[in-house]
Design a protein that fits this description.
10 strands, about 300 residues, alpha+beta, 5-stranded antiparallel sheet, 8 helices
């Protein structure tokens, strides 16, 4: 397959982690051609992504290739391969359908996924006119996810207790002291960690429900991607999406979802934890994702409830 750019192949994806593997267009073409000859003639193009663990390539009109950048992301391949087929039929929006699992090759050391492409735009770039309707749809999706039961043991998720993250959060807040109201951030964090813990049975959670993972088409919820943090846990972590909505839609989301005060407080803690760790780590490499995290953080610190 010919290279798309004159003068040789494009450069590899910018490195997000010090010890990640090098992934470029030539490598992905070779892996696809070697392992999936039926797809070898399809156009291939690297996609910009706010994701941190996998490189993402569009393959033709109907497929997407997702490759772990780093060893810790390999478990996500197995998780999505095993669980998305179980979760998808019970949810009111599309999930990626895994059509093939690639194996290591060409000096690339990890398995990878080929999945169906979900039409639409992520919420970072979508045109939404009726935010209340989208808030209701997001709440309906999250509620349906929480009601699913695993057919057997399921993986853990981001939705554990907040307390183990205390040292990292405090360090990250200190590093952002010139950019944010650090005192307000720590007060909010302490309120979240002091909230009563989840007393119910663990439920299925997405664990990384952020705008880059929410697919919108014609202003309506079309799909949810990137299930690497999914598993059974405290539903509070799925509150993170609320702080990417306008204030009225955020209130609508909470009302539609019907969560109690303690769950909402813990959800604010997860929103803070994700944003303050994400911003300094990816400040030079994922500008769209960092700006979205800054907006969530501003919304959280300025609006409170």
């Amino acid at each position: 397959m010919a290279d798309d750019l004159v003068g040789g192949p494009p450069p590899p994806d910018p490195k997000l982690h010090e010890d990640e593997v090098v992934i470029d267009d030539r490598l992905v073409r070779q892996l696809v051609s070697d392992q999936f000859p039926a797809f070898s003639g399809l156009p291939l193009s690297r996609l910009a992504s706010t994701g941190t663990d996998l490189a993402v390539y569009r393959l033709g009109d109907e497929l997407v290739v997702r490759l772990p950048r780093i060893a810790w992301a390999v478990a996500q391949v197995g998780k999505e391969r095993r669980w998305l087929g179980h979760l998808g039929p019970g949810l009111p929006a599309a999930l990626p359908e895994v059509v093939a699992v690639g194996r290591p090759g060409r000096n690339y050391p990890f398995p990878f996924l080929v999945s169906r492409w979900l039409a639409g735009s992520d919420l970072l770039h979508a045109d939404v006119e009726d935010w209340d309707a989208l808030a209701d749809e997001l709440a309906g999706f999250v509620r349906a996810l929480w009601q699913l039961e695993p057919p057997g043991p399921a993986p853990g998720a981001r939705g554990g207790p907040l307390a183990p993250h205390d040292e990292d959060v405090r360090r990250a807040v200190a590093s952002l002291a010139g950019e944010i109201d650090a005192g307000r951030a720590l007060a909010l964090w302490e309120e979240a960690t002091a909230a009563p813990p989840w007393a119910g049975e663990p439920v299925w959670v997405h664990g990384d429900l952020l705008p880059g993972n929410v697919i919108v088409e014609a202003g309506r919820l079309a799909g949810v991607v990137d299930w690497g943090s999914a598993g059974l846990g405290d539903p509070a972590c799925d509150m993170m999406i609320a702080w990417s909505l306008p204030p009225a839609a955020r209130r609508r989301f909470r009302t539609s979802l019907g969560v109690d005060d303690a769950t909402w407080l813990r959800g604010r803690g997860w929103t803070l934890q994700q944003a303050v760790l994400f911003i300094p780590y990816y400040a030079r490499t994922i500008p769209d994702g960092v700006e979205a995290a800054r907006r969530r953080l501003r919304s959280l610190l300025e609006n409170g409830a």
